[in-house]
Amino acid sequence: MSNSCDYCEQKMSNYCDTCDREVCGKHSAQYHEDGSCTFGKKDRSYELRAELTRQQKNGEFVDVVVEIEGREFPCHRAVLAVTPYFQTMFSSNLAESKAKVITLHDIDSGSFSKILDFVYTGEILIGEDDVQDILQAAHMLQAEDVLECCQKFIVKNLCPSNCVGVMCLADMYGLCSLKTTARSKAVSQFSEVGRCEEFLSLSTQQLLDLLEDKELRVENEDDVVLSMIRWLDHEPESRKTEVSRILPVICLSRVRVSVLEKLEVHPAIPKSPGCLAKITDAKEGHFSGSPKLMADTGREEDGRKPSCGISDELAIIVGGWKAVTQALYSENPTTPTPLQSIICMDIDRDQCYHVTDLPTPIVGCMSVASAGRYLYVTGGRALSFLHPDPGGSNIPSKQAFRYDFATDTWKRLPDIPRDRAGHQSAIVEGKLYLVGGDTAATLFNMFSIECFDIEAEAWIQPPKVPAIIPSPNLKVIACGGKVMLIQGLKKKRRFCVHALDVKTQRWTYASRHASARNLDADIRATTVDNKVHFFVERYVFADVYTYDVDKETPSIEEEKRNTEDVKEELHLVHGVCRRRKHYVKGQKSIINTISRKNYELLAGKDITYYHVNGHKRRTLPFALFGHRFLAAKKSHVGWYCRDQLEKVEEQELQDLLRYYDTSSDDDCDYD
């Protein structure tokens, strides 16, 4: 075997793919059946291109001159004809087909020079200062490869400040792919786009197209209104009548009152009585806690829909104690720190806000329920069970308060007839029901009930409670004009639902057989379309059950307690697996979940947000126990009546939560 190529004197570097001849990296050879051989030089096309470029620069063997803005560009017709523009020109019967000098108008000479370099060399230098001129010239000359290069450069440098201009530019030249990309940037980052100068140049129809896009995503609906105000002010005379077209596509039920008031006094609004009425209705809806928004669909009554990424979900956390660093059975435990306030978690931003301080030294084990913009906070304890209480002063409380979220005010209500802590509450048909909990007389009197008439602001005679077997995992929830008591009875291996119709004061009862492993865990529940869906979380899997409150069930007085006589009115929906898309069709709610591991049975800092498309896990800035949790709607509690609340910033948690391991949440041992 020789060490040199068969076709040149260079050192051999590889074999030909189709014969046994040894060739170098620059050559190729292919033998045929008739004995002939095709020889090739791999870089010949590059050499030819380089030679043509040299000739063009030196004016050798050129046969045409292109003149632009007084500059002359000697060229080869054959090379120019690779573009459809010149190919058509040279093959036509026009004078330019034979002319020695061709003059082009409406094109930048610098851009043509760069395109000409690309035609000869296959390379082009594009910068931010000339990309638009090159794009225009390439579009005119039908230089598709250059157009593609320009689009790639623009996409790479696309940002909120220029995406509107790019969208208009792409529309001008019919570049559909570029327009789609720029539009996607505009709708996905509309809050930033609305603060840029290019946004002000949009036409009314272009603005409407963006606002009506189903993928429009904003930080909050306030940004949409503030952007519209900036747009109106840019050309006040010509745009003052356009507000009547734009306002109907904005979801005013998600706009803060302070922003609505700013819009209300805008000069364009008085000229449109219909717009003024819509703004007034939205403000009144915020303060009344009854927005014109259909809770099930997320759409307003007139068909408007909130911008993508803006949900109405709010998690409210009341009181409790921050977790301690030592184990519960440490010899010298640190006293838990009381959280004597109400905080909210905005699910959209994964951010906690301080709402108000509690008006009482009672800190934890309270119950909270909501009706419109009011929160009802009842009972509770001043100290946790981990706090030394030698004087026995930590008895349950009789205190009851009403908090007005919209105006940030508290009102003391008449004391509860009996002191309570650790109870649950629900509001149905204007009545506040307190169920179960601890009292000073009896621990875990799970099914004693108190009833408060909200309109009369007085405690009234509670309904009679049937004899029900106590269980530690009682769940109370309101649905369809009924107070629902859900419990798991481990000995009977059944889930049971007791429902009180508050109008007829009639109890009904239903149950079904359940796996024993589910019956001693905490029950999570939510309501959708007059149905209660509930489950327990154990290990990785959970079973979801549903109860239809509209379905006729036997009254508890008429029901025989023998297991074989109980109707199976609870239906297993299906098994579910955490961290996968699951749960009840149409479900959209926030459910409190507490991580447990070993002795840390009381403390946790996770909130799980369940949705039909899966769920997201949100984390509080600190671990809590003894707190009360409420899933609420922003538009119902008066969230939009107040300007931005004070943020609860992330705290130093390494020492405080030394024992807490979020990565092992799915492996927690609930036993």
Automatic annotation (TrEMBL):
It comes from Branchiostoma floridae (Florida lancelet). The gene is LOC118422063. Transmembrane segments: none annotated. It comes from the Eukaryota. One of its GO terms (molecular function) is ubiquitin-like ligase-substrate adaptor activity. Keywords: Kelch repeat, Repeat. PANTHER family: KELCH PROTEIN, KELCH-LIKE PROTEIN DIABLO. This is Kelch-like protein 2. Residues 62-128 form the BTB domain.
